Every structure is written in structure tokens, then in C-alpha cells.
FtsK/SpoIIIE domain-containing protein
Amino acid sequence: MTNTSVGWSIPIGKTRYNKTVYHNINKIPHAKVAGATGSGKTEFLRYLVTYMCMRYSPKQLEFIIIDLKNGVSFAPFQWFPHVRGIFKTVPEAVKAVKEAYQTMVERLIEVERLRAVFRREPVYSRLIVLIDEGGELSPAFAVTEEDKEMRKTAMHYLSSIARIGREPRVNIIYGTQRPDADTLPVAIRGQLEGVFCFRTENELDSKIVLRHEGAEKLRWIPGRYLYKSPLVKHDIEIQSPYVPERVLKRLIEPLIPSNTFYDIPRDEVRFKDEQMEQGDDDIGLDNVIRIGDWGE
Ligand SMILES: Nc1ncnc2c1ncn2[C@@H]1O[C@H](COP(=O)(O)OP(=O)(O)OP(=O)(O)O)[C@@H](O)[C@H]1O
Ligand SMILES: [Mg+2]
């Protein structure tokens, strides 16, 4: 249980006029992150995990991370105490989604009990199911009947969470290149109200994500995206923050116990250093965020 006063507005980048934009995950519990390959989705998801783990305690926030591209992008996060696990294959993902679903159901039962017996409203910690390359979960890509059933079960759990996860605070952030009907059933898609649409391949993909064209015309700058939310009238063009590898390494190193057995040996966690910038040594929360140039 956590304190009600904690704020859930997350900075999600800057506009061309240097104004920081916030996304309130309490008001808009589920979101999708879409865009062509190389447009910046994974980097943005990594930023979100880093920012939220720095800002909230593990009692306030937990993550279930599903990375169907092999888990490498999110491997460093295994040491954040907020992260329940990083799941890399379809069977693992199904188990993880089921775990989130069960957490949600247990909470819903408890809410009823607390209301009836104690006339009290519990405030739960937030559990975010963050999925990268969610399209890989699609039943359309199944190779056997059994595989297909498993994927359908995952979609069933996800759609339940998308429908009723708001109150028990189980949220979905779903990253995929193209959330068409094959990769993301319409019933789930409609509930993912926060939209982070990076540059798309074409007009059709933009229409699938945003319900209008435009994302195909974004400048080809990684991290540039259109933000759509039921709380804002017009889509906002934003440059996303990212976390330089060296910064991430410095944040995580103190969390790694020295003589424990891990899923991934410490040496296998690689950090690319090319994004290192001067001044990164001073790791305050502000320094976690780097915003690229507008390029104009
Ligand atoms: N906000 C950003 N600022 C600066 N550079 C970025 C930003 N986001 C991404 N990049 C650069 O672009 C590269 C590709 O980004 P990323 O891996 O996030 O793309 P993606 O959309 O996940 O692609 P894919 O669909 O192939 O997984 C990153 O390795 C990084 O170098
Ligand atoms: Mg990616």
C-alpha cells in the first residue's frame, strides 16, 4: 500500500518551444508506443523504467517487463528492486501476464472485502506490465495449435487488464512497431488511451496508431513522436528523453550484489558508451534525462 499523495505525472519529453510535457499515468493508466524500426520506442521505454524506478519506491511501483526482442535492452533493469522480472520468450510472457492478471483479481476481491467490512478504500502500489515488441505475442505468428492457444490466453489476460486494471492499478504500456488487428486486438487497442506514436513507415500505419495521418511525416530523428491523449485536444510533437548508457550503468552498479548468482552474469550486461556526454558524471535525476536536438 502506498501513500495517496504521490504524484503520477511523468515527464515525457519536450516540445520545440522547450516546454516539458507530462503524462499522468494515474489518469491514463494504459498506453501504446508505436513506430517504425529505429524510431526510438525501446529507448523511450528504457527511459520510462529508469525515471520511474528513480522517482518511486518499490512499494509505490513495480514493473513486469516483457521484452520479446531477446531481453538485452532491458537486462540492466533486473537489478532495480522494482522489477519483478524480465520475460523474454512467449511462454515466459504468458506466465508474466497471468501473474499480473492474478494480482489484479486478488486486489479486486480485496477491495470488495475492505469496502464491505471496513468501509475503507485501499490504495495499491502500481504494477506496470511493460511490453516491448508486443507484436511477437500475436496469435497470428503461432507455429502450432498449442502455441496459438497460449498466445490467445495472453491476449485474454491483457484485454482483461486493459478493461479493468485502472482501479486495482495494474497498467499496460505496450510497445510494438504497428498495432494492427493482427498484433493487437481492437478490444485492447481501444483501451490503451495514451499514445506515443514515433515516425511510422507510411500513412496507413499512422492511421492505425493515431486514427489519422501525420506520423509518417515526422522528421526522421530518433525519439521524435506525436503524443495523443484524451486529456489534450491536439496531438503534441515531442522529442523524447533517453538515458545515456553510462548514466544507466552508474545508477545500477550500486544495486548489483557482488557474490550472488544471477540469471545473466554481470559480465554479460553490456553498456554502449557512445552516448556518453560531458557532464554525465554528475548523476542527479535531471541528468538522467537527455533530450536530443530538434535538428532545425
Ligand atoms: N530520444 C532519443 N534521442 C537520441 N537518440 C535516440 C533516441 N531514441 C533512440 N535513439 C537512437 O536510435 C536508436 C534506435 O532506437 P530504438 O532502439 O529505441 O528504436 P526502436 O523503435 O525500438 O526500433 P526497433 O523497432 O527496431 O526495436 C538507438 O539505439 C539510439 O541510438
Ligand atoms: Mg525496439
Summary: Residues 9-257 form a domain with the Rossmann fold fold (CATH 3.40.50.300). The chain has one domain: 9-257.
